[in-house]
Amino acid sequence: MQPPPAEGVRLDWAAVPESVRAAVERWAGNVIVSAISQRSGFSPGVAARLRLGDGRRLFVKAVGPKPNADAPDIHRREARIVSALPEHVAVPRLRWVCDSPNEGWVVLLFDEVEGEHPRLPWRLDELDRVLNGLNELAHALTPSPLRDARVPTAAARLATRICGWRYLLAWPSGDLDGLDVWSRHHLEQLADLEALAPAAVIGETLLHFDLRADNLLLAPERVWFFDWPHACIGAAWLDVVAFAPSVTMQGGPLPEEVITRYPAFQAADADMVTASIAAIAGYFTYQAAQPPPSGLPTLRAFQAAQAIVARDWLARRTGWT
Fold first, then answer.
1. Do 85 and 167 share a domain, yes or no?
2. Domain ends where: 55, 80, 111?
3. CA–CA gap between residue 161 and residue 157 (Å, rounded)
4. Which residue, 44, 224, 257, 304, could crosslink 288 as a Cys pair with Cβ 3.0–4.6 Å?
């Protein structure tokens, strides 16, 4: 079975208000002669490669207040995070932000980088390149260069948002009919295990915390990491635990093999890893049961497919049949 595509509903550059597009050209000092949309990813806005009249190239991300009112703040958060990253890390440099309160649009302009998304189904050589690149990134971002309170810790994120089993446990029993049998049978145990996760993921590394094939580019000399609005501070190995279900779902090896191929995993405590897997599995399971967010009609299917992998992984580690 083909995995659900990592694609949402993108807007073209022409959908951005003319006044905002004009502001971008004024900053650039030249006209935009072409805008090639990039279809991968879930943001309900613009993601496009721009070419200017003088030959320069930029990558633009832009969202307005519709169809998803939360999207502009997500772009603002990404801008704040990426602008604070060291210049030598493998993250495209943010060159300019256009935050237009009258129109409600937020535009981010990055250096354009050349590369290809990992091929799907995943190939082990490309997976190893990504994991080695992620290891280099973790070393560069430990300790985290972002220390203000606006960047959450992974522990806080898992205690307050990524706690799906706890949320499901609070549902009336009749609302759980759509939940898979294994989750229903072990729900209290899953919530108890998930509760251990915040303490398990404490660390000093700035994590991406939303890695998937569609926000990676493989270039000849390095792996580039995109899309940072969900960054948080925690244990370096947590990024690969959260990443592994998508790899398996998209034709790669089982999650246990994925994490053992990651150098930073060697220092991780097995019980702490299991607690974090419980949190990830609960998050995907709970999110997949929600209505689709406005402007993101394909997201729940993608989360549901990762939930199946994460639950199977957790069942294998716990022995809960």
1. no
2. 111
3. 5
4. 304
Q: Which range of residues forms the domain containing residue 64?
A: 13-111
Which among 111, 133, 158 is the end of a domain? 111
- pLDDT tens, position by position, for the chain (321 residues)? 688 887 777 899 999 999 999 999 999 999 999 999 988 878 889 999 999 999 999 999 999 999 888 999 999 999 999 999 999 999 999 999 999 877 899 999 999 999 999 999 999 999 999 999 999 999 999 999 987 667 999 999 999 999 999 999 999 988 898 999 999 999 999 999 999 999 999 999 999 999 999 999 999 999 999 999 999 999 999 999 999 999 999 999 999 999 999 988 888 999 999 999 999 999 999 999 999 998 888 999 999 999 999 999 999 999 998
What is the pTM for the complete model shown? 0.95
